[in-house]
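Backbone shape codes:
***
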Amino acid sequence: MASAREHVYHGDRFQFNGTGSDYPGAMNGKESAQPGATLAELVAIMHRLLAPGGCPWDREQTLASLRPFLVEETFEVLEALETGTPAQHCEELGDLLMQIVFQAALREGEGAFTIDDVVRGIADKLVRRHPHVFADATADSPDEVLVQWEEIKRREKAEAAGSGAPPPRTLAGVPLSLPALSRAHQVSAKAARVGFDWPDAQGCRDKIAEELGEVDRAIASGDRAAIEHEIGDLLFAAVSLARKLGLDAEAALRACTRRFADRFGFIEDRLRERGKAPSESTLEEMDALWNEAKGSRETGA
């Protein structure tokens, strides 16, 4: 793909691929009064890295080779949100933004689209999907906004598909590549918006009790496929309960896993002080240390 890229540096501007589209160079640390204006500096740096005489590593990257970095940076943003400082969050958002600019630059090299097309596309979409702000529609609650958004999205996709195409399915827009709990949340939420949902959280709670009984029966049968099926149903019901309570099951499980890791680390530290490893301890000793770790975290000790 490198052969498709041609970048010419003109002192303080870059011209890309002979298209006449040029970008401002570095701003020498000066802040712009217009929020977002410094995005042009990042675009210019990326194009310089990809230009002849730029960075050999950057110039050999492809859209496929960048995929793992996009996933990694996304999860690092999430980690900074959960456990980091605002400064760490800022840094990780920058790393994620670089991945977006990088991919857009590679697509520009193919002649497909530019970063301006990316920004213009999402800006136009936000205006279209918020007619209660930018036009004369009304939406007085977050729920009304979501219903309006989904209806506009449905109409747009139907228009793009053409008059002879069947209407898109309600759940068609939920990415298959989402983490399982997040996808379950999105699928159940979209179904709920068209009326397929329990009237309250108690219905979800009753479903969990029902699914637990089915898990027990599957375990008793010894059928591994049935056990997997019923545990999946149980997890989906738990996600639905979290959603009905206004919680994100993915975030809840991440927080739980982090607490488990912290407490188990506490157990290892205390055992090390006693000259032991976990494999040399007993369950009773580790359980007592677990309760100590839990108590110390809850009291802030």
